[in-house]
Amino acid sequence: MPSFIFTYHGGDLPATPAEGEAHKAEWQAWAAGLGAALTNPGTPVGATRVLTADGVSNDPSPHPMLGFSIIEAADLDAALKLLEDCPHLRYGGTLEVAEMMPMPA
Questions:
Q1: Helices marked H in 35-85
Q2: Which ranges of the chain would DSSP assign to H, the alpha helix?
Q3: Cβ neighbours around 28 below 10 Å, total
Q4: Residue 65 CB partners (closer than 8 Å, separation 6+)
């Protein structure tokens, strides 16, 4: 079955530790609901930088990545369906989704 990586972008951060715990619990419940489709729950990331052929930009990325996860789905439409109720979207964030292409041996 194809794998899809999705990256988290933007969104509102919790204002208090209690809100942070509520967001975390909501995300964990959503992730548990994906079951075996969620093959890698992912990792949050720190500050991002943009590297080009001209070097490293000092300007922030217009869409900095906050983290990533990996799911399995029959196709891109099925992957998008699995992600449509991700809590990150309710907090003003976006998800960028792409199929992970198999590498030849």
A1: 76-83
A2: 17-34, 76-83, 87-90
A3: 12
A4: 7, 8, 9, 45, 48
pLDDT tens track for 92-105: 999 999 999 988 88
Reported as a pLDDT band with limits 50, 70 and 90, residue 50 is confident
Structure tokens at 45: 């990331």
Residues 10-22 have pLDDT tens digits of 998 889 999 999 9
Separation of alpha carbons 87 and 49, rounded Å: 26
Residue 99 CA to residue 46 CA, distance in Å, equals 24
Residue given tokens 């079951």 in the structure block: 35
Residues in Cβ contact with 99 at an 8 Å cutoff, skipping those fewer than 6 apart: 2, 3, 4, 76, 79
User: Domain spans of the chain?
Assistant: 21-45+82-92
